[in-house]
Amino acid sequence: MLQSRPLPLCNIYKCAKYPAGRHSRLSYYCFTPIARQFVTVPKMSAHENKAEILKWASQDGEFRRKPSSFRKFISKEAGAEYPPEKGRYHLYISWACPWAHRTAIVRALKGLQGVIGLSVVDWYLGELGWKFSTPEETPGATIDPLHHASHLRELYFRMNPDYEGRFTVPVLWDKKTDTLVNNESSEIIRMLNEEFDDFVDDKFKGVTFYPKSLRKDIDELNEWVYDTVNNGVYKAGFATKQDVYETHVINLFKSLDRLEGILEKSTGPYIFGDVLTEADIRLYTTIVRFDPVYVQHFKCNIGTIRHNYPQLHKWLRHLYWDIPQFKETTNFEHIKKHYTKSHRQINPFGITPVGPIPDIEPK
Q1: Of 10, 15, 97, 300, which one is the catalytic site residue?
Q2: The CA-based dihedral angle spanning residues 272, 298, 233, 16, taken in that order and rounded to the nearest 10 degrees
Q3: Residue 97 catalytic?
Q4: Residue 52, pLDDT score
């Protein structure tokens, strides 16, 4: 176990109800928030104040993720508005974004590279949102081959010139009708999982990451993992009040403890035993970013995956090193640069930490 160190604005004491030898600091200590201290922060300039796209938290200090705006479905059902077709649909992602990363993994795992096109935005998220760059300008990025847009926002404005939501990735685009079909990652991965089997090689047909026998369990786990882990790191990192941050970072580590326990009891290398499911895919994109980014950038630093969570660490390294589609879609340069150089309200000088070294440890 790592040696204990004082944590700011918390009373910490060793808690007898947790046995010695547990690897998570949170499970080894009890936390009692103390009186908050108020600090004066400089006001934003008029220019910064206009940059609504870079404003995350509400006035109460809470980050509340807005629901996705485009929720149509690709379906094999007769008469569907958007039937699956080879070459008809195009996926826009960021290697940096964990939500978009999910869709890239499933596209690769299902062998859909020749069925659904892919474009990758630059890692930098500025006042105009995600931008497109050439691979020469930003290795790993692409131009927009469909509309030659300079920024992703242009696709949203093609749908609605008065659009006022966020310009998020992933985006699933229908080339035939020139329409944005869906920008909700959890729904896109289900479509990629289920609707395109007629167009993939035989070895991918019938492969599912949402098996009927586990759907209830997957849905239940996804619900609390999304709230406290996938989105939990953002709720801690974008919090602008101390008590809000403490609430979310403690809930995050409680859930990491819970996941550690689930993997410890698992009969296989995955959350649900020997079956790789979307629960693993959805969790992976957060955990692979945890030590390189979330520990320092989002102040999720009660512990690290590599030092405090041996089961999660083993699970993570298995996915990354043993299943090529996970490693091939994980771009640590885009990940680290995006968070540290785009979130200037958190990191004003855009300094990207060198560590941890390595980004992910060998098996």
Answers
A1: 97
A2: 70
A3: yes
A4: 52
